[in-house]
Each structure stands twice: as structure tokens, then as C-alpha cells.
Amino acid sequence: MDQYMCLLLHPDSARDFLVKNGDNFLNRPIIYTNQVLSHNFSGLSQARDKRWEATRNTFSSLSTNVLLRKKTYYVEEKIKETINHFANHQIGNKIKSWKFTKPLIMNIFYEYFQISEPFEQTMVDPECWELIEGLFDFVSKAQGKPLLNSNVFGLFIGLYHKLSDLKILKKSYSVIKKKLVDPHMDSIDRNAPRDTIDELILLNESYPKEQQFEHNVIAPIFDFLNAGLNSTSILMEWFLLIMANHPEVQEKIYEELSTINKSFISTKNRYKDTPYLNSVINEVIRYRLGTSTAPRETKEDIEIGGIFIPKGSRVAILTSSIFMDEDYWENPQQFIADRFIGEPKGHMERLLLYSVGKRQCVGKNLANDINYLFCSNMILNFKIKSSTNTIIDDTPIFKLNSLPISHKIILEKR
Ligand code: HEM
């Protein structure tokens, strides 16, 4: 059977498809490799139909659950620890930024799902590293390899899975179970779920007994960590790289932050106090974060705007095209720090980084919080410089994400 792929190149068509006709595009396509790796579409990011809906609903508690909202406090604490760590141990060192951003994000995620006291450990919890390594293995095997989408590779992975019990996932699964799920299981009150993990445990109990606990409870948490870790870290890496190349922009951000007159910038400052920084962050996203959103599959034949899309087609938003389209942006190839000041009409609607509609990124608010706190407090405390005193090559490498070329930066204390 012919397989069609429909790439959405206009923000309006992205909304026509994924919002107005969203119910027809809720599923991910069946890719055999993903089917095997997601244990037959369990978890969240590859789940389909009713299974996806039920699991996704449990994650809605992320933005509504009071306990979790309170955890913004922990996010801020983790950022403070990182800034202190940089100030005390990393000044003048040549730094690969991902070596710090990834553990920071993983620590924040852990806190988010913890029910006990927050970690005493700062920066790099050894088990946290173990989990990161597991995820690295997994993602690096998947990054940018078209073969992975083929059935041939899927069969190979399937065989490997049978022989090895999918070792790449096993390590991460066991850390998630031990660190996050077991403490919930030990203290859950079935009449008063405390957070997303409690809700996943209850959801699992509503399924037939023979269905596996790890597929229903651990796989969605794994998906959450996996989907959030690299994407958020890469955004922060791009911010640091672009700042190293634009010291004049750093100074303007610093000037703006100085008027707040605080030793720590919090998420509360975002909307009223820092229009210039907000514009810079949006411009970093537009300038270097565009790729393609995760594909969806058409449930039924449909015609939208005179275009016929057969059932089973794949649909994705090509953000790399929208973010660089001359019809939408003046000089799109240039980094223009104040492009978003006052959020000129249409600019934010075109910044579809997290996709749109019911299946848009579930971690969008958390990613925005982490990113804002990190960027603002880094500039408040440090000058960011290239380790070679030359402009860092900012050509993106397109894989699953748009990655910066390997580089190092240096921090100087303000
Ligand atoms: C800059 C950071 C991030 C970017 C650019 C990003 C982008 C995306 C995109 C484009 C999708 C596909 C949405 C769709 O199909 O319409 C997605 C899905 C998802 N994201 Fe994110 N994301 C980010 C951060 C996060 C974070 C921090 C988390 C969790 C902590 C997260 C968890 C997820 C999950 C679980 C899905 C699958 C949702 C589903 O299939 O229902 N993401 N993300």
C-alpha cells in the first residue's frame, strides 16, 4: 500500500489539521520499531486510541494538581544549586554545557515525581546518571537513522528484544521503579491520589490483571523523562551557544534583570519584568530549534482546504520551514534578539515548537519554566564566552532534534 506523508508548512494549516480536525489525527503512525520499543504502544508518546487518552488524562494532573504546582519551588531550588555549583567550581573551565544541563533536568524531573523529601544530592546523583546513560543509549540509537523506521530494522530490534529482554530499556525501567514508583506503591491512598504516578497506578489497576504493571506505569514515566530530557537540554545549550556569540545581547538582558533587583529571578518575573529576555528566548527557538514535530496518523479519509488526505497518512508540522519562512519573518536567517518584543501580531502563533491540539507536548509548561529560570539566572550571574575566543559555529545538525555542533563555553563571574 502507498504510504503518504503530509508536511504542514503553514501555521494556519497546522491548526486546521491538528486543532479543528484534531480527533482525526490523534494517533502516532504504526512504526514497527516504535511498536517493539514501546511494548506494543503502551506508555504515552507512542500510545494509541483509548489507551493514549486514558494515560494522557493522568498527565493532566501535572498542570492542575496542587502538589505538583507547589513543586515549582523545587525547580527553582535545583536551578539555584546549579548556579552555585557553577560559581564555586566551574569558573574559567571549558564546559560542555550538556554535561550540566542534562543532570539538572533529570534532577528536576525526579523532584517532580518524588513524594518524599527532595534529593539531598546536588547536581549528579549516581543513579540519576545511570538513568541518563540508559536514555542516552536509547536516544543515540534512535537519532537520525532512517533505517530505524523500516520494518527490517523493526524485525531486528524485535529479535534483539526477545534475546536480551531489551537491555537498553531495562536499566532505566529499574531505576524508575526503585526511585519513583516503589515509594508511591508503599504509601498510596487509593481514595486520594497524590500525583501522576498514583493516578497511573490506579489506572493500571483498572486494566485486566494479565496486563503488565511496567507497561502501564513505568513506560509512561519513561516516556515523559525521555521526551523531556533532550529537548529541554538542547534548548538550553542553544541559548548558551548563541549568548556566547552575542555578548551585546547578554549585556542587554543583564541590564533588564538588574532592574528587578533580586539575587534570584523566579518564574513570577517572566510576564511583566523581562520582555527583552522573553524575546531572546523566543528568537533562539525560532532561529535554531525548528525540526519537525512527532508524526501523527490520519484515522479516516479527510479533505481539508481542498486537499484529500487518505486514512493512514502521516502528518507532521515542519517547524524548520515555518521558522525560516520569508513570508513570516524578516531576514529569517539572522538572529534578531528583539524580534519578539511586544510580540508582534502572528509571531507567537507561528512558534509551534510544542505542536498544537490535544496531543501537543505534555511538558510544555514545565519546559518553559525550567528554560526561563535557567536562562535568566545564568545571565544574572555569569558572562558566557566561547572557549576559543572565536565565534562558535552555530550550524544546526538535524536529527530528531536540531543539535548544536560539539563545542565548549567558559563562564566568567559577574
Ligand atoms: C523544549 C522542550 C520541548 C520540546 C521542544 C518538546 C516538543 C514536543 C513535541 C513537538 C511533541 C509532539 C506533540 C504532538 O504530537 O503534537 C512532544 C510530545 C511530548 N512531550 Fe515534549 N517537548 C519539550 C519538553 C518536554 C518536557 C519537559 C516533557 C516532560 C517532562 C515532555 C514530554 C512530552 C511527552 C510525554 C510527549 C508525548 C505526548 C503524547 O504523545 O501525548 N516534553 N513534545
Description:
With 414 residues, the protein is mainly alpha-helical. The chain has one domain (5-413): Cytochrome p450 (Orthogonal Bundle), CATH 1.10.630.10. Helices cover 54% and strands 7% of the residues. It is built from 18 helices and 9 strands. Strand 3 (302-304) and strand 4 (307-309) form a beta hairpin. Helix 6 (72-90) packs antiparallel against helix 7, helix 8 (126-142) crosses helix 10 (167-187) and helix 12 crosses helix 15 (275-289). The termini are far apart. Residues 118-122 have low confidence and may be disordered. Belongs to the cytochrome P450 family. It is found in: Membrane. Its cofactor is heme. One of its GO terms (cellular component) is membrane.
Q: Which features characterize this protein?
A:
Cytochrome p450; three-stranded mixed beta sheet; two-stranded antiparallel ribbon; 18 helices; binds protoporphyrin IX containing FE
Cofactors and ligands present? protoporphyrin IX containing FE
Q: What form results from the Cα inertia axes?
A: globular
Look at the structure and give the mean pLDDT. Answer: 86
* Total beta strands: 9
Order of helices and strands: EHHHHHHHHHHHHHHHEEEEHHHEEEE
CATH homologous superfamily label: Cytochrome P450
The CATH topology is Cytochrome p450
Number of domains: 1
- In the CATH scheme, the class would be Mainly Alpha
Spatial strand arrangement across the major sheet: 1-5-2
Regions with little confidence, pLDDT below 50 for 5+ residues: 118-122
Give the count of helical stretches. 18
Range of helix content:
40-55%
CATH architecture annotation name:
Orthogonal Bundle
Structural class: mainly alpha
| Backbone CA Rg | 22 Å
N/C terminus separation: 61 Å
Tell me the major beta sheet: 3 strands, mixed
- In percent terms, what proportion of residues is strand? 5-15%
Main location: membrane
Membrane topology: Single-pass membrane protein
Organism: Dictyostelium purpureum (Slime mold)
Cofactor: heme
